[in-house]
Design brief:
The chain has 93 residues and is mainly alpha-helical. The chain is built from 3 helices and no strands.
Length: 93
Amino acid sequence: MRVVLTGLLASVILGTSAVGLSPHARELLTGIFQDVGSILNSFTGGPDDPHSPVTNSVTLKQDSARFDSATQKAQQLATELGKLDRQTSDRGH
């Protein structure tokens, strides 16, 4: 189910169908959404929550690492999408 939702969300974000994405690209998208979801989840108790990254340095470091991870995956995804675009162009589509 998560893969289907990732595909649908990717289609909306990328403005194209995620069906043609490689398994690695879909895996990267899923990882990005998980990282971002974890970061957003750390704010669910509000900024004054003891577990919020605003008040908790451990949570802030964890969220920073997740942000770095999502950024790295996004860069890898950009490379994957570039390959897909070149393959599509080479086929004359």
